[in-house]
Amino acid sequence: MQISFSFQLISNITFPVFIFLSLTTCAQKQVLSIQEIVDKSIKAHGHEKFEKIHLEFIFRDYHYTLHRDTMQTIYSRQTVVDSLTIKDIYPTNGRLVRYVNEQPIELNDSIIDLYQSSLNAVMYFMELPYKLNDSPVIKELKSEKEIDGRKYYTFEVTFQGNDTHEDVYYYWIDKETYLIDYFAYSFLNDGGGTRFRKAINRRNINDVIFQDYENYRPEEKFVPLENLPDLLVDNQLILVSQVIKENISIH
Description:
With about 250 residues, this protein is of the alpha+beta class. It is about 25% helix and about 45% strand. It has 4 helices and 14 strands. The chain has a 7-stranded antiparallel beta sheet, with helices on one face. Strands 7-8-9-10-11-12-13 form a 7-stranded antiparallel beta sheet. The longest helix has 28 residues. The termini are far apart. The N terminus is likely disordered.
């Protein structure tokens, strides 16, 4: 009888402790590092395919191409102006070359830098979140955020050792889907400013998620990036443009 009572007493004490330890362990397992969150987002977007890809799309009268294999990454864009076919080809480990009617033309360094920066910017946004694992990227996890009733991981991105080292980005990744619903950035070039983007027109093409964006700005030029989601919910952001990519093909 004494043994039975002792066993029951121990069980009564041990069982709640076991439950507590189990719950604590589960809670600890749910705490993700910023790298784990980004990797999950890349997988959710299907961007493992960006390791080796041929991608084409139309954006604002330009036909863009991204080709990446095990050897190199090549960005290009092409348009027609006054019956002239203008094409920029930029191997990212080299320098951009402009062709007019398939003939290369000479450009000074400042113009090359300008064209490279423009082409890079379009491709960077097209490749999110894949680009968040680039070597110059520094990621810092911030406090979680609730936007329109959904919970988000929030993190800041800065850059080291390149031309955009003064730019700052914030990303909001849905805690359930791991998709990027919002991001924001501040920049200093061309007069500087702050922008906030909201994902729209999300679609799946060959198991890769693509999305367009509504592009907003605050009334003031510079606003803390972490405040922008609240300004959106309160209708205090100004819609500047829509970033729409068309005729996307991937293989």
